[in-house]
Amino acid sequence: MKKQKSIDAIHFLKTLTLRKIINGLLLRLSYRISIFSGKHIHWGKPESLSIEPTNLCNLKCPECPSGNNLMTRSRLFLSDENYKKSISEFAPWLSNLILYFQGEPFMHPKIYDFIALATQKNIYTTTSTNGQFLSKENCEKIVKSGLKRLIVSIDGTDQNTYEKYRVGGSFNLVVSGIQNLVEAKQTLNKHTPYVIVQFVVFKTNEHQIDDIKKLCKKLTVDLTLKTAQIDDFLNGNELLPKNQKLSRYARDKNDKFHLKRKQNFKCWRVWNGSVISADNKLLPCCFDKNAEHSYGSPELLVWKNKAASDFRKLVWEKNTIEMCKNCSEGVKPITLSK
Question: What's the CA gap between 195 and 148, in Å, rounded?
Fold first, then answer.
């Protein structure tokens, strides 16, 4: 929906300040200088931040560490105090706040307050949901909170296909939830949040891409196709789509799979942002799902400390970090055909 995308872009631009623009330029300039010079020169402060409201989830998705119980971190909710401290610390430079990491953010009892505080601080804020909590009442709260973008996951166009991955979820509940959200925006005369349906492509649902396009058109929301992250992908996996154009992995001449990414790729994700986990640790990025590479506490000084600098150097100079071997950064997204 071109009109919705244009309105979303305007809302983003309205959150920018001179400080944020200069910070973004410094990050990008130092990134380019470092690539061309071969030296690690890092300027600026985080312009993008993911904060994890909770790592608890109501579904049992097989490739998600929160859903398949393979997460080694303690399950908990981010405290109100820690959230407010982090927002106060990072807000002046943030162009983008992502209120999710692992888990279902709408399970957090303070999620609407979290969003509202970010809105008050003039931060463009996004969150993502499995769509099981989009009641009429909750959708009204979402719209009133000032959330700018909401990603809703639907990985199938009927219950049978949908539940093959979203184990324990209701397809009809997600669809009715999106309808509730569209209605709430109309009732309250608001353009936000910009609603995007995210369809993660698996072998189980790749035949329904045309159907999800039709469904999104009917619901008057936008659609994005996402390649599936598979933990054990080297020898293939039953969830990998048959059409390799819909996968982030390619098969080589030895019948092994690898990421579709250039070998000399320089990660932007660890350069311009960070993640704050529910247990209040500052992490390199959203692929550090078990918080194995924490920089320390969520502070600007910590983002620039030796641990953070050393990790960024390691990511750039070596290809040995386990979590980086399955990262989608630098992998071309799926393009939607008309």
Answer: 9
Q: Which helix (H) or strand (E) holds 253?
A: none
Q: What is the pTM of this model?
A: 0.93
Strand partners, 98: 50, 126
Least confident of 147-156, 270-279, 316-325: 316-325
What one-character DSSP code corresponds to residue 104?
-
pLDDT of res. 233: 83
**Residue 17: HSE in the Cβ half-sphere, 13 Å Cα cutoff:** 12
**What does DSSP say about strands 222-227 and 125-129: parallel, antiparallel, or unpaired?**
unpaired
Residue 85 burial (C-beta neighbours within 10 Å; 0-12, 13-18, 19+): middle
Residue where the block lists tokens 């305007």: 10
Residue 111 and residue 234: Cα distance in Å, rounded? 38
Cite the beta strand spans of the chain per DSSP E. 48-51, 96-98, 125-129, 149-153, 194-201, 222-227, 249-251, 257-259, 273-276, 282-283
Adjacent-strand bridge partners of 272: none
pLDDT digits (tens, 9 = 90+) for 184-195: 999 999 999 999
